[in-house]
Amino acid sequence: MKKTKLTIKFILLSVFLIFLGLLDLLSGSIQISVSDIFNYIFSSNTESEFYLLLKEFRFPRMSMAILAGASLSISGLIMQTLFRNPLAGPDILGISSGASLGVAIVVLGGSYLFGNHFYHASNYITLIAAGIGAASILGLILIISYKLRDILSILIIGILLAGIISAIVNILQYFATGINVKSFVVWTMGSLTASSSKDLLLASPIILIFVLLAFSLSKNLNLMLLGENFAKTMGVNIKLLRILSFTIVSILTGVITVYCGPIGFVGIAVPHISRWIFNTSNHFVLIPASALLGGIFMLCGDILSNLFTSNGNLPINAITAILAAPFIIWVVFKNKRTFV
Amino acid sequence: MENSILNIINLKFGYKIPLCEQEVNLSANIGDLICLVGLNGSGKSTFLNTISGILKPISGKIIIDGQDVKKLSLNNKSKLISFVPTKIDFTANLTVRELAEMGRSPYTNVFDKKSEADIKLVEKNLNDFDLLKLQNRQLWSLSDGERQKAMIARALIQETPLMILDEPSAFLDYEMKHQLMRKLKEISTNKCLIFSSHDIETSTKFATKIWFINKSKFEVLSPMEFIENHYKKSI
Amino acid sequence: MKFIYFLIFNFLVLFLLNSCNNQHIKTEEGQTIPNKYATDFEIQEISDGYILKVKNRFDQTNSGTYNYYLSYEPESSPNSNVTIPIPVSKVACLSTSHIAFISTLNKTSSIKGISTPELVCNSDVSKLYAQGKIYNIGYDNQINYEKIISISPDVVFAFGVDNTSVSKFQKLTDLGIPVVFVNDFTEAKPLGRSEWIKFFACFYDKLNFATEYFDSIENNYLNIKSSIPQTTEKPKVLVSLPWKGTWWVPGGNSFFANFINDAGGEYIFSNNNHSDSQGLNIEEVFAKAKNISFWLNPNNVNTKTEILSIDNRLEFFEPYKTAKIYNNNLKENQAGGNDFWESGILHPDIILLDLKTIFHQDSTNIHNLYYYKQIN
After folding, report:
1. How far apart are CA C287 and CA A52, in angstroms?
2. Would A176 disulfide with which of A108, A114, A182, C96, CB 3.0-4.6 Å?
């Protein structure tokens, strides 16, 4: 992959990302024009007609799409490398499930625990609960990673954890009353429109920092490509790499799940698309590539979801599944021999 | 003994149960081309994995270049020992060049920035192994022999005094086996090489010493001694 | 001798025909008592009782209607009907609105089983429950069938929500406990919902009482409605809160939209015929909710700060800054049970008066809000 070819591809993808970002800003129930967008960016007029719309709705939605796409794709890439499994995704350790459990306890069980006095279904509460849930699972995974040597054992425990959590959530749903179940189910469908500019202000620095941290793991991740034993002889501390990777993946996935609900499939499909377009397994290339392609993917999903309904609220999870599945199947057939 | 590049002292190795009855005491020097022989299941791979740091010893000490391996950081260890496995699962999109450049990772920073000297070293070794024209080819598309060469080139690029090879000639044809042994002989002039092999006839022509795992006991022999006392008797 | 056999044979035939005719008479439609507003139930008076028909909008398999046969002289019922001996003395209710209907008929003592006792606002029922005279029979997916059987009610009042509803109660009907689906909540007109008191009255032989009661409520309601000042500029009204980017609002032809209309308000999303809720994009509501005078029913918040905790963008929402906000949870109990949906069903006139007071605030209004409170 020559340097110039690489640069051209990155530039093209970046341009495409900006183009889709613009298209996404134009999508929604309210019609606006490109000049409205430029006015918003370049003028300081806070009273203009679409100022609130762009500031609190369109820009946060577009930015969340890109952040979610980047975070989940990078997380999926790292998991696929560490677990040497082409179907691994960011939720392989159950981080999203942990967030779901937190939200389930608060939304579904809240009326039992707190009665009428505590407004349990507020947005802040669900954000905090999702965060605590995700963090708890991370803590558990870190303890397990420290004790267990074999990556396959960690994988099995992660899957079992996700299964147990899913069962508990089902039980909570079973005992809850209709309105609360609806609120919870709506959360599980994922939503890019729930975030405000304040939410964005808090989430973006965290995501950016951890994306950079992920990039700094590239050298060691590359060495893992030829197996753990080879990596060891090249000086890689496997346990430390796992702990750092799991932490970064959990924070990236956890933050996105907290603000957007659990979003699936992006993290599994986009790394494969990156590998195909750039024809490499080098993480120094794949991590930024997956970030760009993940953003492009989620923007497409958001634009589509606004196209198909008048109110633009098709659950984002349904769209990502439909968009991602053909890619996974196609890439698997195209590259039968190289997965990771 | 003290100037040896490798000193193995009272080593017990294995997964949980020691594979050898006695503790192992061995040493090796720069210029040695040591062939590790033993029947299947005798523990050759386990022994090599232990010396190269993949497995932890059950007890005992391994001293390389005067330093106790247990006290070394993983990075420093990788500057002293390089390891060439028998075969690698090539499921990644790695090129020959990328594999070769991995040899410099103990010396590069977190962003894997390679200096001019690093690049020159990589290109020189690729040239020596006749791999320059293949350098942008992906590993999975090469023949076994070419892949093996790339792996060994990488190990050389790692610039370690000690190099371990686990059955390096296992998948090579007879011509390549000879080429490989000649190359190893050449490399061993300023390194210490230890390799395991089932090909007694070729190996004994080139090796300077034989480490023979005989019924759970390590014996150090000259190639002639091994052939006369053990090899000829068993066939 | 042959003639006697012929006579006996004729008598037999006549007897059989008579029985068949009796059966035939029972399946015949009776005299329909027309409803004034309700559309989802129908009462037909027949010689020995009533035939009640309930329209079920959700069940496609049952051709949309449930039939119940209520009889003072219960005999074996025709196949497609559920026979219920009346008047009933023991009932189980799966919704708190049922409790409201029955207590208005002064038949609270007949209630032996209820759902979600903590959400019940009726103090008599709560007291009886605390004394152990009424049992908790579960709700939704975990109906306590054994409890119901041990109560052995004359009828169970349930509500059909989807296709699984009938099968869910099959166990009870198989054991001879009649289950009646009450779909008062699908009525779009406020008075239509209250009119279901007549439906319940049939079970207790109090149809005349119920009709009188309903007529008086209707009278009050219409009086209040006509007393509402007709202004050219009706106050604009917004309803409910968003959740995760979607704003669920009542349809233009829904229960609450009709209330707003009758109270002289202009509901901003009334430009459609939906009788159930619609999910709108939150940005759309932000854009369209301009010059809102009143914001009603923001879920179950008690303060403006709680509104912000739902979505912090509401800080910039024009109605948040300028509208008067009222919530219908003044009569909410400790566990979150809201009397608006219980006794409120039987008092649409009070609700209308509340709304009139809210919309047309002037010094002549001395009515203290009953179900509503202002949110600050």
Report:
1. 9
2. A108
Element (H, E) at B60: strand B59-64
C157 and C277, same domain (yes or no): no
pLDDT bracket for residue C343 (50, 70, 90): very high
Suggest the residue from A47, A103, A123, A199 to mutate for an interface test with chain C (most C CBs closer than 10 A).
A123
- Residue B2 DSSP SS3: coil
- pTM attached to this predicted model: 0.86
Residue A93 CA from chain centroid, whole number: 14
Task: Give yes or no for C280 touching A (CB within 8 A).
Answer: yes
Q: Return the H-helix or E-strand segment holding A44.
A: none
CA distance B180 to B206: 10
**What gap in Å lies between CA A80 and CA A310, rounded to an integer?**
38
d(CA A329, CA C355): 58
Picking from A235, A281, A339, the nearest residue to B94 by CB comes out as: A281
C286 in A contact zone (CB under 8 Å): yes
How far apart are the CA of C191 and the nearest CA of chain A, in angstroms? 25
H-type alpha helices, chain B: 44-51, 74-77, 96-102, 116-128, 144-157, 174-187, 200-206, 223-226, 232-234
In contact, C53 and C44? CB cutoff 8 Å: yes
* H or E element in which residue A51 lies: helix A51-52
> In A, which residues are within 8 Å of B82 by CB distance?
233
pLDDT tens for B202-229 read 888 899 999 998 877 888 988 888 888 8
> How many Cβ pairs closer than 8 A exist between chain A and B?
77
Q: Kindly indicate whether the ipTM for this predicted assembly is greater than 0.90, answering yes or no.
A: yes
Measured in degrees and rounded to the nearest 5, phi and psi for residue C43 equal -110, 125
* Residue position matching structure tokens 């009515």: C367
Chain C residues touching A58 at Cβ < 8 A: 283
Q: Do the beta carbons of residue C40 and residue C187 sit within 8 Å? A: yes
Is residue A34 classed as helix, strand or coil in its secondary structure? helix
Tokens for B153? 């080139």
Task: Find residue B165's DSSP bridge partners.
Answer: B84, B195
In a domain, C12, yes or no: no
Q: Which of A29, A122, A311 sits opposite C309 (nearest CB)?
A: A122
A52: which chain C residues are within 8 Å (Cβ-Cβ)?
286, 316
Element (H, E) at A12: helix A3-26
Could you give the CA distance from residue B218 to residue B51 in angstroms, rounded to a whole number? 15
Q: Do chains A and B touch (3 or more CB pairs under 8 A)?
A: yes
Residue position matching structure tokens 């022509």? B205
Structural domain boundaries enclosing C307:
229-375
A139-152 pLDDT per residue, tens: 888 888 888 878 88
Q: What is the DSSP letter of C337?
A: -
Residue range B131-142: mean pLDDT, rounded: 91
Tell me: domain A3-334, CATH 1.10.3470.10, correct? yes
Of B93, B108, B111, the CB nearest to A281: B93
The secondary structure of B162-215 as a DSSP string is EEEESSTTTT--HHHHHHHHHHHHHHTTSSEEEEE-S-HHHHHHH-SEEEEEET
If asked whether residues C61 and C187 sit together in one domain, one would say: yes
Tokens, residue B73: 């950081």
First to last CA, chain A: 17
Contact call for A313 and C245, based on CB within 8 A: yes
Looking at the structure, tell me whether residues C370 and C293 fall in a common domain. Answer: yes
The reply to whether C350 and C286 lie within a common domain is yes
Interface check B113 vs A, CB under 8 A: no
Whole-angstrom CA distances from A42 to A46, B138, B211 are 11, 48, 76
Task: Decide if B53 and A232 are in contact by the 8 Å CB cutoff.
Answer: yes
What's at B55, amino acid-wise? L
Kindly report the CATH number assigned to the domain that includes residue C278.
Answer: 3.40.50.1980
Residues of chain C with C-beta less than 8 angstroms from the C-beta of A302: none
